[in-house]
Write a structure and sequence with these properties.
This protein has 304 residues and is an alpha+beta fold. Helix content is 23%, strand content 25%. It has seven helices and 17 strands. A six-stranded mixed β-sheet has the order 1-2-3-4-5-6. β11 and β12 form a beta hairpin. α6 packs antiparallel against α7. The radius of gyration is 18 Å and the shape is globular. The N and C termini lie far apart (55 Å). The N terminus is likely disordered.
């Protein structure tokens, strides 16, 4: 029955929408200025990422492509903001949907075509490429209260119930548990979701940047987060985190976390210097680059 439902969804889709930069810029004409500002800085250091997905496609529609990671896990990409990603995590009794993309019409029905379990929507953070228009399909959403500062700008018109995540909270999906770990830095309320049973990975949103970290807080916050996550990944044998802009080849690895930690330490110590960021949207007027990653930040307030 599930296979038939997924096949029907694939037939419903309108084909693969263009993912090239020109395509999503054209689509972004309908977006508000806040979303456009994020779009302008949401490119990877080399420009648009190379797409090289190994996961098989189970749904293609005008707003999203969904691929299967394993028998009970799926990853979806929108087309508006550098392959913004959603994740469908299914247990024996319930499902959580991590993030909702920028604009995915009918997202709840699409997910219901993939899983028959009740769906809970959670967000890694409240930026509009993760809590876009599709959140209105859901009667409630879970967010980190640390991101309340961004709710008036990005979620002001949401009429559903807003629940607040707790650090260390566990979502028991039935035979599959997901732990919530707060990972501030990109935003004050960024959160990462870690598998606790068998799978050695997590889902990190934009906490570590997908190669292009937009640090809206400061390097001390990023240092505290990377120090904690470096230890957490080692302790639990976590091999990777699926990021908020997954292109098939850019999981966040333990090495990436160690690299970001080192860069933060050096910025705080004054042994590394930034340069001007010409794309100074969101007030991120400076940047550093190393280890194949950009960190864009606010100078001088971000260097502390």
């Amino acid at each position: 029955m599930r296979k038939d439902r997924r096949n029907a969804l694939k037939l419903m889709g309108m084909g693969t929408a263009g993912i090239a930069f020109a395509s999503y810029v054209k689509a972004a004409d309908v977006l508000d200025e806040s979303t456009m500002n994020l779009l302008r800085v949401r490119q990877t250091p080399q420009g648009m990422p190379r797409l090289n997905y190994s996961e098989p496609v189970v749904y293609e529609g005008p707003d999203v492509i969904i691929r299967q990671i394993d028998a009970h896990t799926w990853e979806g990409n929108g087309h508006l903001m550098a392959n913004e990603s959603i994740y469908i995590i299914e247990g024996d009794e319930r499902t959580i949907l991590i993030d909702a993309g920028t604009k995915i019409d009918g997202l709840k029905k699409i997910v219901e075509g993939i899983t028959s379990k009740p769906i809970t929507l959670v967000a890694t953070h409240v930026h509009p490429d993760h809590t876009g228009s599709a959140i209105h399909d859901f009667p409630e959403i879970w967010i980190n209260a640390g991101d309340e500062v961004n709710v008036p700008q990005f979620m002001a018109d949401y009429k559903g119930k807003v629940n607040y995540l707790a650090d260390g909270q566990v979502f028991d999906l039935g035979g599959r548990r997901i732990e919530v770990i707060f990972t501030p830095g990109h935003t004050p309320g960024s959160a990462t979701f870690f598998e606790m049973d068998g799978r050695k990975w997590g889902y990190s949103g934009d906490a570590f940047g997908s190669g292009n970290l937009l640090l809206t807080t400061n390097f001390s916050t990023l240092l505290a987060t990377t120090t904690r996550i470096e230890s957490y990944m080692k302790r639990h044998g976590i091999e990777k985190m699926y990021p908020g802009h997954y292109n098939g080849t850019n999981p966040e690895t333990p090495q990436r976390i160690s690299d970001l930690k080192l860069m933060s330490e050096q910025m705080i110590a004054g042994t590394r210097q930034g340069s001007a960021n010409e794309q100074a949207n969101l007030g991120l007027n400076a940047m550093i680059r190393d280890f194949n990653v950009n960190i864009r930040y606010r100078d001088p307030e971000g260097v502390k």
